[in-house]
Design goal:
Structural class: mainly alpha
Largest sheet: none
Number of helices: 3
Helix content: 40-55%
Oligomer: single chain
Radius of gyration: 17 Å
Length: 68
């Protein structure tokens, strides 16, 4: 059980490709700072949509295997 935090950190570091570029996150956080949100999850929803809108699509082709 004392190795669980180390394994958790290793798993977080192992997947940097799914993160948005830093400039996208900075842009979205600065936009969110200028807006007054009413609901509890509105800011997170806005930031998630902003990051999705400004993140470039993947450039590699997916392997289209048939999965049954």
């Amino acid at each position: 059980m004392k190795f669980a935090p180390i394994i958790g950190c290793a798993l977080m570091i192992a997947t940097p490709a799914v993160a948005a570029p830093q400039w996208v996150e900075d842009l979205c956080w600065s936009k969110a700072a200028r807006i007054a949100f009413m609901g509890r999850g509105d800011r997170e929803h806005f930031i998630a949509n902003c990051i999705a809108d400004h993140t470039p699509p993947p450039t590699t082709k997916r392997n289209k295997k048939r999965r049954y």
